[in-house]
Write a structure and sequence with these properties.
This protein is an alpha+beta fold. The mean pLDDT is 85.
Length: 79
């Protein structure tokens, strides 16, 4: 059985406004960030779930013509 998480740290609205970028970083790192007013929790700052990118997931979806890297015959006109 995993150890219980620490209780979330509460930040008052003024402190959250002053330290917003720090709180965003903490939330992205997995820390519970709760913003409170008068010691009553109002909102919880959580990251939006982003799909993990994996190389090779578009394999077979991109096509190039056989002559993709051939120099066009009329290219000499642009020199």
């Amino acid at each position: 059985m995993p150890y219980p998480k620490h209780p979330p740290r509460h930040y008052n609205v003024a402190e959250a406004k002053a330290r917003f970028s720090t709180l965003v970083r903490k939330a992205l790192e997995g820390e519970d960030v709760v913003i409170a007013r008068d010691n009553k929790p109002l909102v919880k700052l959580v990251p939006i779930a982003v799909r993990e990118r994996r190389p090779g997931t578009a394999r077979g979806l991109v096509r190039m013509s056989a002559d993709f890297d051939r120099t066009p015959e009329d290219f000499s006109d642009y020199r």
